[in-house]
Design goal:
By secondary structure, the protein is of the alpha/beta class. It is built from ten helices and eight strands.
Amino acid sequence: MTSVPSPSTGATGTNASTSQPPPPRSRRRPAPAPVPRGRFAWLTGMLSWTLLIASTLFWCALLFPLALLKLVLPFAAVRRRIDPMLNGIATAWISGNTGWFAWIQREPWDIQGNEGLRYADWYLVNCNHQSWADIFVLQRSLNRRIPLLKFFLKHQLIYVPVIGLAWWALDFPFMKRHGKTQLRRNPALRRQDQETAKRACAKFSLVPTSVMVFAEGTRFTEAKRAAQDSPYRHLLKPKAGGLAVALNAMGNRFRSLIDVTIVYPEGAPGFWDLACGRAGPVLVRMRQLPVPAAFCEADYGSDKAFRKEFHNWLARQWEAKDAEIDALTPPREG
């Protein structure tokens, strides 16, 4: 249970002048502009935290007994009955949180492309990643339009009080990250996370589910982009493994891939900014892409030709996403 916006007219944020041509775009990512700070914004932030904690405890009190029953009776027939109830509880929790956060934001959010989706279907969702606020933005944009988003999480997050157990109860996959040195010493570790993802996806195939992936694997910063020598101006290099495993495990189930691009024209807000109602303008652009049938059958781990084809497919999406972010981001003068 986590709750943590293609351009419209006048929303691109360009500084066009009626007498002079627009200034050339900087070749670097624009520096975040300061988020406006209200005099008593911290009071709103404290109230947001209080409401979030209270609603989490309330809904988890309903969630955990059902999760325990599912643990005691680990049968497919039981899961088909209990999982929709668990997802319904999480959806209600998200609705309350997103309603509050939407009410306190000063700037309206510009969300486009979330029409024509079906709640009773399966989706694979891929998005760029800049802040913990991304999760709240995604949930506000897609809640009740598609099934509950299930994220791939770092294994350490299972120890987060209360919410870690809630993620476990909702079958969020917990993945162990291994460094390159570890993988060289023990290549079997690479298969470990793949098997974890496959087991999770097998559970997801029982009831309509949305599998959410941040292909970059971590939040964007300029320092990380420079360290990677990323070819993209606004993105880190995408990691194909999580997407490939999800497609291989249940690709035939997915109605489509929802490619999501989130842009914060004034800089990515942190959770505290969101809680204080000063997230600034948020732009969300979505497009549905067909899932190539061949991707649902090939083995990413052992098929070198498929890995190359998959990387090229993902790179084309990332090039389009990078250009879209560039078009939606105000240029930096000087």
